[in-house]
Amino acid sequence: MLDVFLLAKVLLVGGLTAAVSMLLSAWGTVRLWQRSACWSWAVGAGVLAASGATDQWPHWPALEDRGRFLTLLVPLTLLLDTLASTARSRRVAWIMRAGLAAIVTPILLHNSVYLADLDGRNSAEWSSLQATIVLCGLAALLMLWWAMLSGLQSQTSSHVVMWVLALDALAVAATVMLSGYYRAGLLGLGLAAALAGATLASHLARPQSTANGSLSMAVVGIFSVLLAGRFFGQLSTGQMAWLLLAPMLVWTVELPRLRSLSPGWRNAVRLSCLTVPLIVIVIVAQRKFIAASTARSTPSSPSAFRDLHEK
What we know:
By secondary structure, the chain is mainly alpha-helical. The protein is 71% helix and 0% strand. The chain contains 11 helices and no strands. The chain has helices at residues 4-26, 32-53, 65-86, 90-109, 128-155, 158-178, 182-202, 216-232, 237-245, 256-259, 263-296. Helix 1 (4-26) runs antiparallel to helix 2 (32-53). The longest helix is centred in the C-terminal third of the chain and has 34 residues, at 263-296. It is globular and about 55 Å long. The N and C termini lie close together (11 Å).
């Protein structure tokens, strides 16, 4: 049974922390790199605070994927994003982001059954060649997704893209929870709250450029929660692909014929293009959850869920 109080606490702590962090870091800021990096600082602070609300603080040694995300990936993302924001060359900034994209999956899957010989020699599920293909493919997928979102940001604004990512993160959190990895879903819920809180506060933290907000923490966070659900939960590859694709549907509004619509209609079309597929994905995940729960109630059926009742 879901703990509604815990979910509300995650939303409040993550959202308020990100909002306050955004106001403190962006208020009166005149330097361009600070205007960009303050988004990741605010979202990162919100994610860490929300994780603390569920007793998932960063810790060492970080033996599980959630611990490695909080202890390694969040600080690395904030550090590299700050360095990338100070870089005068866009090419150098993207090289830093590519380096970050390359280490996300290896950090999350470190010492897992996929990469490590946990049960003796050659017991890892993936051979060296398979591991290389999967890790390189996922790094390329993350960079492609990041670049397309950055392009959408250039066409619209940081506010539009951050709201898109906040809704996507919310759907990711719900789907991962329903796919059997409840506590990874809680990280996604904290991320969604942090994105919403930072974006709301950014409207007050002027002067604030509308087009140079950094997407790093949002992109890496959503991708990490999806990987956790895919490789350590029951999230299917199809569900993961749709949750990555949904924000791209917002590009539909940038088609020549739709560009002439009034701002109100364009926002309505954007919202429809994003929310309809996300709602469908969550409904499908809920039906699978109910079916698996029904099967689980049969004594002879194995459990499909790892940690829904862990806490």
